Amino acid sequence: MASDRDTLPELIKPSHYFLSLYDLEFGGNFTYQGTVKINVNVKAGAEKSSEVVLNSYQLTIHSAELELNGSTRPSKDISYDEKSQRATLAFGEQFGSSGEGVLTIKFQGTMNNVMAGFYRSKYKPKGDVPSSVAKDDEFHYMFSTQFESCDARRAFPCFDEPNLKATFDVQLELPEDQVALSNMPEKSVEKSNKAGFKTVLFDRTPIMSTYLLAWAIGDFEYVETHTKRKYNGKSLPVRVYTTRGLKDQGRFALENCHQVVDYFSEVFQIDYPLPKVDLLAVHEFSHGAMENWGLITYRTTAVLFDEKTSAQSYRNRVAYVVAHELAHQWFGNLVTMDWWDELWLNEGFATWVGWFAIDHLYPEWNVWGQFVTESVQTAFQFDSLRTSHPIQVPVRDALEVDQIFDSISYLKGSSVIRMLSAHLGEKVFLQGVADYLKAHQYKNATTNDLWSALSKTSGKDVNSFMDLWIRKIGFPVVTVAEEPGQIALRQQRFLMSGDAKPEEDETTWWIPLGLQTGASATEVSTHEVTALTKKEDTIRNVNDFYKLNKDLTGFYRTNYPAERLAKLGEAKNHLSVQDRIGLVGDAYANAVAGYGKTTGLLALVERFQDEKEYLVWSQVLTNLSNIRNVFADIPDISKALTKFSLNLITPAVEKIGWDFKEGEGFLDVQLRVALIMSAGLVGHKGTVDEAVRRFKLYTSGEDKDAINPSLRGAVFRIAVNEGGEEAYNAVKNEYKHTTSIDGREICLQSMGRVQTPELAQEFLKFVFSPEVALQDKHSGTASVATNAKVRYELWKYVRNNWDSTVYPLMSGNMVVLERFLRFGLNKFADAAVADEIQQFFADKDVRGYDKGLAVVDDTIRSLAAFKKRDEQVVREWLSERGYLEKN
């Protein structure tokens, strides 16, 4: 057993489960009864043992018996360890021998309401609902599972570790007029002994990890298509299941799904291995989606899309999330990481290859530009903190696992995969991945196994240059010094706080330079020196024009001299979208860390007034908003930065207008949305007036077509920002009555724009009321966090209601609690607030969300240091350019 893992004893290994659930109580306490028969291998050396230890959490085990070598013995004692989420079945006498046995356990569980294990989701149905469907005064319920990372143990006693793979037979008893789903197709349906009930048995699964098992029960209907490609001579059925009345909103996901299944079967050179693909929309869901083999579950906004009422941004989201989860059917399900320390193997790869598939389906979306402005920049942000962790990080137990489902595992992992793919070449890289999958299918594998396959295919020692990227914390900034005909490069660890100590800066990364140089921006060619492999080096034969890190494929920041940054800004129209995004993102990050100056960033973005690309504008607007956020409590600078932003945005927003044109592309729509929202929130009069006018027409019911669905978020935010209590109540009313699948999420994000402490407290009470589902609470609080006018009210609410409301409501699912705290408290730029937060949690048991609190503390203190350091120089720069009001 690895010393850094708290794992089950190795004396007993499962090979097959027969799981039967029955007597489900569709109301009251929502309990159910279960029997699980586990085929086990009692290994040599277990002869003197007399007990079986397995995972069980919030279950009651009624009885257990072990049949081994012809004798059956009942358990004499059953004990539980809540902290380690284990049960010990003591049989009283030594096993006496090893061999194959059957462990039979009868138990009781609860279909809980915390989005983990086997749980219930509330919803308001459309259409006539069978009387058997569970309901209360206001809601109906569906039932489904969420087992990753370690919550299969909440549903049934099991050996709940990823490398303890087994096959599964699932049998469910349910009302005759409802639908049951699981990983595999139905094998048989029989009448139950209970009147009005049936028993559904599903086909046996392939060998797989417990976290991938899934089932669901509810009033489901579906839309269906089939793959174009044949699998074992037949096209596969592909379905999107929803509760009644929503199935047609699954057609967009369906159309993507069958194409991606065929595409990945070709790319990975292994046919999709199951006989069906089901996608299920779940009304309450802690994550975005879950890759259960053959029964993929999704938050509704990640799989449903209505052509008439959904914002276009959700089209992009649905397409990507569908592809990401399908990637897991091979990378994660067919070949599984050995232990949770290599979670990145699942999530980093699925993130990269998910975008790879969307680029194949929608080349006009400029997916890699989107990847750079969203995924790469977010990964940089989290990995620039001292509280970051290596991509491959030691994980001891379940509560630690949940906290690494984060931007490092997903986004830094995928960014590093993209860097490696660019270096090896896409074709070579994908061949290596296919070879890795073929070699380890139906087994567990490690990072080194992937590196070995890629090394063999490419003829390069991949481990030698990738190992540090995976096993060391952080990433580098490459600082450039110019000399005639050459540049000197120095790499050091990038920290947002800008103060890496020598012991924190010992890693020498392999850095692909992506250096292009030429007489001018229009005459560049790739430099012969491909990588920086020392702490410092000099690159010769560099012409007058040069730029590092082409298309931002390398995972590092670049810190240019101020004059070079200005020259690159002048040449921006000759740079790729990714290069322009990287230029702005690096300038912002270097300013925050103190490697550069905020004034350098402001001077750079001034040149982007005529920018035409949404993805570049997105980076500019995000970084400007962050700067305004940091200086929000310094009145003169805050006003001047608002003026600066208004001056930058005005020509673009006035040019793009409000009218959507026939045949307009996805990126054009997103540009209009971004510019209108940003212009309105910094007070562009024309935008504000038009937004308020349309808002009144829409909310009064006079003209429900006054707001294009894609502009609801922008218009609602601007209206609440400007309109006080009346506008807030109008959006709250919209939240309660919207029928759009994305409507509630948009309303919550908009209501966070309130401008008074009283309305902020009213909104937070609403967020924590039963009217807002647990999965959505962070949507509301994150919007308050980005609202400098009232963000302190959020911290006050958390502090004053921690024991009575916040912790009791959210602690049943630590993923939700950690995310809420991290998104809600990390926007302050005041060390005094960091002190308050630190003191408040000093005497609390923070296990399960301690890493989120560490991120909050590190971020606040870094932003506070940045504000203090750059305050005067920013004030002087803004004053020189006439943005600062004279006293």
Brief characterization of the structure:
With 887 residues, the chain is an alpha+beta fold. It is built from 24 helices and 31 strands. The model has no long low-confidence stretch (mean pLDDT 95).
Walk me through what this model shows.
By secondary structure, the chain is of the alpha+beta class. Among the domains are: 1-218, Immunoglobulin-like; 764-867. Helices cover 41% and strands 21% of the residues. It contains 24 helices and 31 strands.
**What overall form do the CA principal axes indicate?**
globular
Q: Unreliable runs, pLDDT <50, ≥5 residues?
A: none
- Termini gap: 69 Å
Radius of gyration, taken over Cα atoms and rounded to an integer in Å: 28 Å
Could you tell me the number of beta strands? 31
> What is the CATH domain class of the domain at 1-218?
Mainly Beta
Strand content: 15-25%
Q: Helices and strands: which structural class?
A: alpha+beta
Main beta sheet strand tally, sense and closure: 8 strands, mixed
The proportion of residues forming helix, as a percent range, comes to 40-55%
CATH architecture of the domain at 1-218: Sandwich
Tell me, rounded to a whole number, the average pLDDT.
95
If helices are DSSP runs of H or I spanning 4 or more residues, what is the number of helices?
24
Domain Peptidase M1 membrane alanine aminopeptidase: 252-469
Protein name: Aminopeptidase
Site (Transition state stabilizer): 410
Keywords: Aminopeptidase, Hydrolase, Metal-binding, Metalloprotease, Protease, Zinc
